[in-house]
From TrEMBL:
It comes from the Bacteria. The lineage of its organism: Bacteria, Pseudomonadati, Pseudomonadota, Betaproteobacteria, Burkholderiales. SUPFAM superfamilies: Acetamidase/Formamidase-like. Keywords: Plasmid. The keyword Coiled coil does not apply. NCBIfam families: TAT_signal_seq (TIGR01409). The keyword Cytoplasm does not apply. PANTHER family: FORMAMIDASE C869.04-RELATED. It comes from Cupriavidus necator (strain ATCC 43291 / DSM 13513 / CCUG 52238 / LMG 8453 / N-1) (Ralstonia eutropha). GO terms for molecular function: hydrolase activity, acting on carbon-nitrogen (but not peptide) bonds, in linear amides. This is Acetamidase. Transmembrane segments: none annotated.
Length: 411
C-alpha cells in the first residue's frame, strides 16, 4: 500500500461459515501454533471462518494475555439510573477541558451515562472518504487538540481527594474509522515523507475490520480520553495526562474493565472522547483505528477519601498503573514508583518486596510513544508507560486488600 493513498475497505460478510468450518477452526486453533495451523486459519478466514476466529476477542481483547480467564471486575447489571447524553454543539468541546463550562448532567454515584452517538475528531467534521488535504484544513482549525470531548458530567458528593471509578459497561463503535500518519509525527517522524490515510469499514457486529486482503484486525473498542476536570482556572489540553486521567490511549481499557481517576474539583466533572475501534500498545504512528461510539455506557462510582497520584486500571486479571514523562525512561520509573507505593501500602509488603515482584512478574509496556517534530497541536502527547501486575500472584485475601485500597466503601 502506498503512503498517503486513501484506502476504502468495504466490510466483508463472514457470517456464512458452516459447521465444518467451525470444526476446522477448532482443530487448527488447537494445533500448537505451527505453521500449518496458521496457514489453515488464514485459509479458513477466506471461506467464512474469520468471524468466529475474531468474534470472541471483540469485547474481551485487552492487550494482556489470559484476560478472558479472570473473574469479572464488576457486575454490569448492578447500577443506578441510566442517563442519556447525546453529543451536540452544547455538550461537546474539542481538544481541551475548560473549567468554565457548566456541567451538562449531574448524577448520583453508581449511575450510568449512556453516551449516544459520540463524535469523531475535530467536532465531528471528519467524514469517511475525505482526502488527507481536506482533513488537514479541518485539523489546523483545532490547535488545542483533536478530541471531541463530551461533558462534563458531575457526580454528586465528589470533592477533591476522592476517586471516581469509571466502569466500561458498553463500547460499540460506529461502522467506520481511520488510521493516519502526519509527516513529522509518530515514533519515526523523519522516515516517511508523504502523509498516510487508511479508511476502514467494520462488519455489522463490530467484530473486525479488513486491513487488506488476508489481513483482519479484531476490534477491541476503547475510550482514549477519560478525565475528571483538572484543578485550575484555565483550560487543560486533553493531550496531557495526570492523576485526573486525560490522554490515556490504554488498549486494555475495554468492556468489563475499570479506570480510577482522581477528583480535583467539586463534582469531578467527567469528560470523555477519542474513541478507538482498535489500537496497539505504543500507537507508534500516533493513531489506532480512530472512530466514535454508537453506544457508549460508563458507570461512575464515587470512592471517598482515596489518595491517587496516577491513573489506575483494573482488568479481570491485572492491575495497571500509568506513568508519563518527557522520556520513556522517566515514564517507566514514574509507573514503577506508583505501582510499588500503591501495592506496598495495600498489602503491607515492603517496597523492596514489591520492587522484586515487579521485576519478576510485572510487565512494563509502552502505552504511547511520539517524537513529534511537526505537530499541529499546542501540547505534544507525553510518552507513557503502563505497569501491570497479575492478580493471580496474590492470595484472595491480598487481592481483596488491593481492591479495598481503591474501594474503601466496598461499592
Amino acid at each position: 500500500m502506498t503512503a498517503g493513498k486513501i484506502i476504502i475497505d468495504q466490510a466483508n460478510d463472514f457470517d456464512a461459515a458452516d459447521g465444518s468450518a467451525r470444526d476446522e477452526i477448532r482443530r487448527f486453533a488447537g494445533d500448537g501454533g505451527t505453521d500449518r495451523s496458521r496457514r489453515g486459519l488464514l485459509k479458513l478466514a477466506g471461506i467464512g471462518g474469520a468471524s468466529m476466529i475474531l468474534g470472541g476477542r471483540a469485547h474481551a481483547a485487552s492487550g494482556i494475555e489470559g484476560e478472558r480467564d479472570g473473574a469479572r471486575v464488576f457486575d454490569p447489571n448492578r447500577h443506578g439510573k441510566v442517563h442519556t447524553l447525546p453529543s451536540t454543539p452544547e455538550t461537546v468541546r474539542v481538544g481541551e477541558m475548560d473549567p468554565a463550562v457548566q456541567s451538562v448532567l449531574e448524577i448520583e454515584s453508581g449511575d450510568v451515562v449512556h453516551y449516544q452517538n459520540t463524535w469523531v475528531h475535530w467536532g465531528n467534521e471528519a467524514k469517511f472518504g475525505m482526502s488527507f488535504a481536506e482533513r488537514n484544513v479541518i485539523r489546523k482549525r483545532y490547535p488545542q487538540g483533536p478530541q471531541s470531548l463530551v461533558g462534563p458530567v458531575s457526580i454528586k458528593g465528589a470533592v477533591p481527594g476522592d476517586v471516581i471509578e469509571c466502569r466500561m459497561i458498553r463500547l460499540r463503535p460506529i461502522d467506520w474509522g481511520w488510521n493516519s500518519t502526519v509527516r513529522g509525527m509518530g515514533a519515526l517522524p523523519g522516515d516517511f515523507q508523504e502523509p498516510y490515510l487508511h479508511y476502514f469499514r467494520f462488519d455489522a457486529e463490530r467484530r473486525f475490520a479488513e486491513f487488506a486482503p488476508g489481513v483482519l484486525i479484531p476490534l477491541a473498542p476503547t475510550q482514549g480520553a477519560i478525565a475528571a476536570q483538572p484543578a485550575g482556572d484555565k483550560p487543560t489540553s486533553a493531550l496531557l495526562l495526570g492523576a485526573y486521567g486525560g490522554n490515556l490511549s490504554l488498549a486494555s481499557l475495554v468492556e468489563g474493565t475499570s479506570l480510577f481517576v482522581s477528583v480535583e474539583v467539586p463534582g469531578a466533572k467527567m469528560w470523555t472522547g477519542d474513541s478507538n475501534a482498535a489500537q496497539g500498545d505504543g500507537v507508534v504512528n500516533q493513531t489506532g483505528i480512530e472512530s466514535a461510539m454508537e453506544d457508549l455506557r460508563i458507570q461512575y462510582v464515587l470512592h471517598k477519601r482515596v489518595a491517587l497520584n496516577a491513573p489506575l486500571a483494573e482488568t479481570p486479571t491485572h492491575w495497571i498503573v500509568l506513568g508519563a514523562g518527557p522520556t520513556l525512561e522517566e515514564a517507566l520509573t514514574a509507573a514503577l514508583r506508583q505501582m510499588i507505593g500503591w501495592i506496598s501500602a495495600a498489602t503491607a509488603l515492603s517496597w523492596h518486596d514489591v520492587y522484586a515482584l515487579c521485576s519478576i512478574e510485572g510487565s512494563f509496556r509502552v502505552t504511547q510513544y511520539a517524537n513529534q517534530t511537526n505537530s499541529n497541536y499546542s501540547f505534544p502527547s507525553p510518552k507513557v508507560i503502563h505497569a501491570t501486575l497479575p492478580k493471580r500472584i496474590f492470595s484472595a485475601e491480598r487481592q481483596t486488600k488491593i481492591s479495598r485500597s481503591l474501594r474503601p466503601q466496598n461499592s
